[in-house]
Amino acid sequence: MTDQPSPPDELLPATRRALLHRTAVAQAEGRTPSLVAAVVRDGRLVWSGARSMIDGHAPTPDVQYRIGSLTKTFVAVLVLRLRDEGLLDLADPLRLHLPGTPADDATVAQLLAHSAGLAAETPAPWWERTDGALRPALDDLLEADAALKHPAGRRHHYSNPGYALLGALVERLRGEPWGEVLRREVLEPLGMDRTTLLPEHPHAGGFAVHPWADVMLPEPLTDTALMGPAGQLWSTATDLARWAAFLADGDDKVLGAATLAEMRRPAVGPDDPDWTSSYGLGLQLRRYEGRVLYGHTGSMPGFTAGLWVSDADGLAALALSNATTGANAALLAADLIALTARHEPRLPEPWRPLPEVDEDLLALTGLWYWGASAHVLRLKADRLLELSLLAGGNRSSRFRAEADGTWTGLDNYYAGETLRVVRAADGSVGHLDLGSFVFTREPYGPADVVPGGVDPRGWQAG
């Protein structure tokens, strides 16, 4: 067993012990040959721990494991880079860029969100344990007469071939293999030099553990070729800690924070009204112990992986194992976040005054009324405005200042809507217009700006 915090005093001893204990339990009860885990706080690797079946030896955070469907998060970032560069639109049908596949009518967004209705797997034999050379063409990834299992856009239905098609889309628009595009555009800028398509020493071997006896069977280390974008990558705890930090905050060299926020919004409504899991654009979402996590799980023969980020806690965690079943790496990663947050809850940022005062914006703050409904407008840093119901509720929204003097809603009900300050003839502030909603300084007044007018008799007693 090893406990390798980095730096050594970043977490309290009791926290490190709890994390190591949970990791050791996962390895023992999951009967996995080895297991490595890590915690990231505020973008930095602050703890890593490992457990192995070999006495006195455990993998370091730089040992490679196969990460399975965590690969999909990398492919999704490549696709969103293409979108942000204007080379495609998420509403584009696949045929516009990659014609002739059984998924011609599926949109890019539907493929990213697993809502295109495509089959979950390729035709037999099972792609994860067979050489990719068995499927040399895109037509081999889906059966033409059985590719669609559900109407497109209606429900989430996980599709591994769908991500193979996204990898081929990247190759078509970039003109080179998706793995090379990934290395140059994402891995190198983020310093992830131990994330590769094929294993590089030192790496773990993958095993199946017998369900009723403590014996093992080596799993094949396949190159899945065209199916690679669905689950081919190998990586390390150190590299995935960098990936977790990127998913949390973005990096303008790769993808901005606003696009990453778009990726982690649910793309298709969950079937369960009390949902515990959902899917965005290449990122899984999960509710766990009262917090919303985003990231991805992964499995390939011989390996399981899990990586989650909790924005509310400023934490991320990951776990990698080298057994086909047993240790639940995704659950372990979620538990490591919960344990760290329980032992060392995030400290709020100190209150600080704004660096400068804009008198015009300050004059906008305070009470505003939509009809008889009281709202409060607050001024935040960077000219950000926040509008919320005085009595609470679900329509609190933040607004980003634009160059033309308007504000754009960032979240909740008013996301994407435009807030305008409407001035009177003398230049004073008359009212606020928010997507045709009129906000005035007093309930239902003045009559000339309230849609439909106001009864000239004014407010009356009963």
What does this 3D model show about the protein?
The chain has helices spanning 13-30, 71-84, 108-112, 160-174, 178-187, 228-231, 237-249, 257-263, 329-343, 359-362; strands at residues 2-3, 34-41, 44-52, 65-66, 207-209, 216-218, 234-235, 277-279, 284-288, 291-300, 303-310, 315-321, 366-370, 373-379, 385-389, 397-401, 407-409, 418-423, 429-434, 437-440. With 462 residues, it is of the alpha+beta class. It has two domains: 2-343, DD-peptidase/beta-lactamase superfamily (Beta-lactamase, 3-Layer(aba) Sandwich), CATH 3.40.710; 359-440, Lipocalin (Beta Barrel). A hairpin with an 8-residue loop joins β17 and β18 (418-423). The longest helix is centred in the first third of the chain and has 18 residues, at 13-30. It is globular and about 85 Å long. The relative contact order is 0.13. Mean pLDDT is 93; it is low at 4-9. It comes from Kitasatospora paracochleata. Residues 27-341 form the Beta-lactamase-related domain.
